[in-house]
Amino acid sequence: MTDNYVDFHLKKELPGKKKLWLKMFPKYFSDIKGGQLTLILPDGDVAKFGQGKAGSLQALIKLNSYRPLSILFAKGDLAFAESYLKGEWESPDLTALFEFGLVMETKLKISSSNSLVLKIINRLLHVLNRNSKNGSRRNIAFHYDLGNNFYKHWLDKTMTYSSALFNSPTESLEQAQLNKYSAIEELLDATKKDRILEIGCGWGGFSEYIVKSKGSRIEGLTLSKQQLEFANSRYKNLGIAEHASASYTDYRDSKGQYDKIVSIEMFEAVGEDNWDIYFKTIHDRLVPSGTAVLQIITIDNERFHSYRKNTDFIQRYIFPGGMLPSLEALQRAISRNNLKIQYTNFFGTSYARTCAMWNERFQTAWPEIENLGYSKRFKRMWEYYLSYCEAGFKAGSINVGLYKVTKAA
Fold first, then answer.
1. 140 pLDDT exceeds 70?
2. Do 86 and 161 belong to one domain?
3. Are residues 217 and 93 in the same domain?
4. pLDDT value of residue 409
5. Whole-prediction pTM value?
6. Catalytic residue among 188, 339, 389, 400
7. What are phi and psi of 197, to 5 degrees?
8. Which of 114, 142, 158 is the last residue of a domain?
9. Same domain for 222 and 331?
10. How many whole angstroms separate alpha carbon 115 and alpha carbon 145?
11. Are residues 163 and 82 in the same domain?
12. pLDDT tens, 326-342?
């Protein structure tokens, strides 16, 4: 088996179109080395493509119907994802499947260009979700107002929904989130006298951390009503409401100047049309000697051109209106708005581990989450999303970093 790139012998003849779609696999997979894809067909037959050598990437798809075959070749990856949500196919290890696809991407020439109409429709849906002020409120609510109880079931005690920073293999998720907050604190060099603005404060985890650590005053902005209620209740219950507060405010409507600004994985939600507005806002809100620390996810420079023209699974189902920059595009946007990057720290492997731990916690908590009224389709959507992200960070197609930014001289 390890010497054959295609093992494609079926026990019985398939109907015409089913056989046609299945026969297309060798065209795309026969040259692959260093990995193997196994297809389990609805009737139990097995087809294997690529090499199955020890240590190579192994991916498996179990088809519950033949429909996903035509979807993959005729409609592309987004439609194939939608097929998963419908239960038409499954995999015992989605992350391995996505990682296989990313690593082998240069060999797998399967493209959604066969369905230009579907591409246009999905792009239009993404454009309709653009982040005007009203659009931003709608898009943020779509994801973050799923319910605080939903997120409580699988986030750690800090209620942090951004990448943790692991310093050792044995650290808990909570400790790794505190590591991340500590790294941000060090870059900020905040003092008790500082006034800090947090653009996208989430459920208040960083605000709690910095007040307890430095006694600074921090004001958080959010467009999630659920997060707003949770954060302000958190500050009140901790007795730090005199130092920490959250308001339902769009960053574009913020006023005044601050000694320090923090924004943790909020930039990804602003949309490309607003990148300059976001960084101009940071520039205008900072005092001349101020410092901003930003945690931002980027996509590989080589993938950015294609990515920005299409709509992926996350934009369609998870973060409407969202857009990742490439590192080069991010650097240009920062520079255009009279800001300067003083320091960067990339930790994509920590994000892969964070996603894996979130997924594990999500699966463990599913019975309780299901009792909140969420459907099996919802479960499949979230496990697909978390596995999709984990694979991306593992393969290096996406990365995350901390950026220390000041006003340009």
1. no
2. no
3. no
4. 73
5. 0.86
6. 389
7. -110, 130
8. 114
9. yes
10. 34
11. no
12. 999 999 999 999 999 99
Give dist(CA 250, CA 271) in Å, integer.
14
Q: Which residue has the tokens 């389990």?
A: 40
- Please report whether residue 126 resides in a domain: no
Six token digits for residue 13: 């003849």
Question: What CATH number did the domain enclosing 398 receive?
Answer: 3.40.50.150
In this predicted model, which residue has the larger pLDDT, 78 or 281? Answer: 281
- Identify whether 373 is part of a domain: yes
In a domain, 124, yes or no: no
d(CA 405, CA 341): 5
Place of tokens 């430095």: 214
Kindly state whether residues 106 and 158 are assigned to the same domain: no
Query: How confident is the model over 126-155, as a mean pLDDT?
Result: 61
Domain for residue 150, yes or no?
Answer: yes
Asked if residue 96 and residue 150 are part of one domain, the reply reads no
Taking the C-alpha atoms of 312, 317, 318 and 322 in order, what is their torsion angle to the nearest 10 degrees?
A: 50
Three-class DSSP labels, the chain: CCCCCEECCCCCCCCHHHHHHHHCHHHHHCCCCCEEEEEECCCCCEEEEECCCCCCEEEEEEECCCHHHHHHHHHCHHHHHHHHHCCCEECCCHHHHHHHHHHCCCCCCCCHHHCHHHHHHHHHHHHHCCCCHHHHHHHHHHHHCCCHHHHHCCCCCCCCCCCCCCCCCCCCHHHHHHHHHHHHHHHHCCCCCCEEEEECCCCCHHHHHHHHHHCCEEEEEECCHHHHHHHHHHHHHHCCCCCEEEEECCHHHCCCCEEEEEEECCHHHCCHHHHHHHHHHHHHHEEEEEEEEEEEEEECHHHHHHHHHCCCHHHHHHCCCCCCCEHHHHHHHHHHCCEEEEEEEECHHHHHHHHHHHHHHHHHHHHHHHHCCCCHHHHHHHHHHHHHHHHHHHHCCEEEEEEEEEECC
In the chain, the number of structural domains is 2
Domain CATH for 45: 3.30.1050
pLDDT, mean of residues 352-362:
98
Q: Which domain holds residue 37?
A: 6-114
pLDDT confidence bin for 23, thresholds 50/70/90 = low
Choose one of 114, 148, 168: the last residue of a domain: 114
The whole-angstrom separation of Cα 223 and Cα 251 is 9
Nearest to residue 159, comparing CAs of 93, 224, 208?
Answer: 208
Whole-number average pLDDT of the chain: 85
201 catalytic per annotation = no
Q: Are residues 100 and 188 in the same domain?
A: no
Query: What tokens appear for 219 in the block?
Result: 């004001």
